[in-house]
Amino acid sequence: MDALFFFALLSAASAFRLSERDEFHFKSWMAQYNRVYSMKEYYERLQIFTDNKRRIDKHNEGNHSYTMGLNQFADMTFAEFQKSFLLSEPQNCSATKGNYFSSNAPYPDSVDWRKKGNYLTPVKNQGSCGSCWTFSTTGCLESVTAIATGKLIPLSEQQLVDCAQDFNNHGCNGGLPSQAFEYILYNKGLMTEDDYPYKAFGSECKYKPELAAAFVKEVVNITAYNEMEMVDAVATRNPVSFAFEVTSDFMHYEQGVYTSTKCHNTTDKVNHAVLAVGYGENNGTPYWIVKNSWGSGWGIDGYFLIERGKNMCGLAACSSFPVV
Ligand SMILES: *[C@@H]1O[C@H](CO)[C@@H](O)[C@H](O)[C@H]1NC(C)=O
Ligand SMILES: *[C@@H]1O[C@H](CO)[C@@H](O)[C@H](O)[C@H]1NC(C)=O
Ligand SMILES: *[C@@H]1O[C@H](CO)[C@@H](O)[C@H](O)[C@H]1NC(C)=O
Ligand SMILES: *[C@@H]1O[C@H](CO)[C@@H](O)[C@H](O)[C@H]1NC(C)=O
């Protein structure tokens, strides 16, 4: 072998610090997630995967309230992840003015709308489009409608992606559930998932009023940072849409109660919208039970738990739900 070439190989290997074991882990992950790469991409992804895996292993060796795992995002950097799966820009939800009235009713130590009846559709997958806000919106309206009517009907995210721009929403580049509920209210209806299916990219609005299947009478915004109002609403009324700031530790979440010291907690930093479907407490740590939109293979069957009572990552900054 040419000495120079050999040297180049050696230094490349040491720069990457990759072992056969790393490649073995990567190949089993590739098989599990059906990934195929070009030769060049293979080495790039192997490096990113290995960096992620080391970070995950290190986290799991520590004493944390949640574990990380190698999920479908294990071959991506946070910057790539952010571009495809979060709102491209943090949303400023400071215009979400509160109008919630607490029931002041006693509420139980734990609530889980998944177990109360048929109120939640299966976890959906937003794909690589910053449309989380549409899934938070449909998830909430689906459950509020099912609680009111006894009928659970999957609703259209694509209509919100394509048609809700006038309410400060931006399709695959972000939006907010409170603004999407306003759109549905003024538009006088949202179509079903079947009639207006999801495509994961924005296109021309194809709303058909005669096929409107769900309606909003009023939008209720929870007072900014008032997490007790969120508890009250989830305990006495229905699941609640909220937004929070996702940072790099969250994409590898596996199970347990997520908590972070990296994220911000204000209205101008939220970048992901989801649905609180219940709450509880584990060894003295209160948590929310949350439906996400990254498929049922992510987290706990598509759900996650996040620490409750501390406005963790701004989760109480702008939460809302519709009245039907
Ligand atoms: C792990 O963390 C918990 C909660 O922060 C603490 O109570 C416990 O003592 C810690 N255990 C170890 C071994 O550090
Ligand atoms: C958010 O919007 C409010 C007005 O709605 C504005 O006063 C504030 O400066 C904005 N914050 C950021 C960070 O853009
Ligand atoms: C709720 O917040 C949205 C913006 O997020 C706003 O447009 C709407 O006016 C608010 N509703 C009430 C009743 O204040
Ligand atoms: C945000 O976090 C800081 C630091 O922990 C805290 O002092 C502040 O009260 C929090 N603000 C909100 C709105 O939760």
TrEMBL record:
Cellular component GO terms, alphabetical: lysosome
Location in the cell: Lysosome
Catalysed conversion reaction: Hydrolysis of proteins, acting as an aminopeptidase (notably, cleaving Arg-|-Xaa bonds) as well as an endopeptidase
SUPFAM superfamilies xref list: Cysteine proteinases
Keyword terms of this UniProt record: Disulfide bond, Glycoprotein, Hydrolase, Lysosome, Protease, Signal, Thiol protease, Zymogen
GO molecular function annotations of the record: cysteine-type endopeptidase activity
Domain named Cathepsin propeptide inhibitor: residues: 26-81
Highest taxon listed in the record's lineage: Eukaryota
Annotated ranges, domain Peptidase C1A papain C-terminal: 107-323
SMART domains xrefs: Inhibitor_I29 (SM00848), Pept_C1 (SM00645)
GO biological process, one term: proteolysis
Signal peptide: 1-15
PANTHER family, sorted: CYSTEINE PROTEASE FAMILY C1-RELATED
Family, similarity comment: Belongs to the peptidase C1 family.
Role, per record: Important for the overall degradation of proteins in lysosomes.
Protein name as catalogued: Pro-cathepsin H
